[in-house]
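Predict structure. Chain length: 382.
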Amino acid sequence: MTEKNTMQPAQAADQSDLSRAFAEDGERKTHIGGQALLEGIMMRGKFNWAVAVREPDGNIYLEEHDLASGRKKNSWLHWPLVRGCTALVESLALGFKALAIATEHAFEDDDEPKKDTKLRSCEEGVIEEVTPPRDAAKNAAKEGEDGSTSVSFISGFAMIIGVVLGLAIFIVAPAFLTNLIVGDYTEGNALAWNLVDGVIRIIIFLLYLWLIGRMEDIKRMFMYHGAEHKTIHCYEHQLPLTVENARKFPRLHVRCGTAFLIMVLLIAIIVYTVVPINAIIGALGIPDGPAKFAVIVATRVILLPLIAGISYEITVKWAGSHPDNVLVKVILWPGMQMQYLTTNEPGDEQLECAIAAMEQVLAREEREAAEGGSAEKAPAAA
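Prediction complete.
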């Protein structure tokens, strides 16, 4: 810990969160990232992921799970461009699992029996800590003791519904509106069509974030998002993980996944313009009308993995590792601005949850390091 790192947040207290996020990027770039949940936080490391949830009684429920790495068996999933899609799918799957845990405990039914827990002290209240054995999920599924099969089914179904709705809102709807504004997609208007389509998609996305941000539960979730960033800032500055230390840092972070999402929207405009969709339509002999529109939508869905892969390489692998680069600041600027919509200034109860989840992940990594464990270095992300 250096004097510079200790004093920097206090000295920059009067600056904007945006300028501070770049200026105060810590020397220790961590691979640990997180996700805000309903009344909680999920933190993910190399070996495990942990969820900390604020229960109705004020206590913090903490649950930890192993993070299985398939890199040795499927190394191709971690090749450049491909690894972006892998990371996106894994994040979605873990996100839904974590959200299910948070929903169960943030709004717990008093009639339900509680799981066996061990308690450890916290600055305020009590933390209920649950660390399932490595094969607990498998045994539970076989024995049907805790309904984990039903929870997995519901989480999987919810993820499918979410993906379908996402495609309808951010692929089909913009294309339909663009057809009304520009006309049918042709070789002569391809550039204008894709630009209008992309702008409409970005507007819908920003409007969606703004609207859900008006909901009280989502406002609080965005507070947890801010707490996640502050906690990671604190760790990257090599300061003790305390509420007082974390509170000093900005709620924005240069390696937030929000930058990845906005980059996907921007890269999509370029990819959809470059790919010769009209040549494909002509080669297939598709007539104008609904069939042509369906092919346009289908090609957009098919190209999503490529778009995600390119966006990941830019925002996570390159920009996230070079935050001081002027070009990086320009590229990340839209995503950083969008964090003003997806983060709110947290209170102590949000920071406590973020710290609890972070400590659980760090403790596991310290144990693995002591035992000589190893894993591929995950990309720095917040």
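Summary: Residues 1-13, 115-126, 131-145, 375-380 have pLDDT under 50 and may be disordered.
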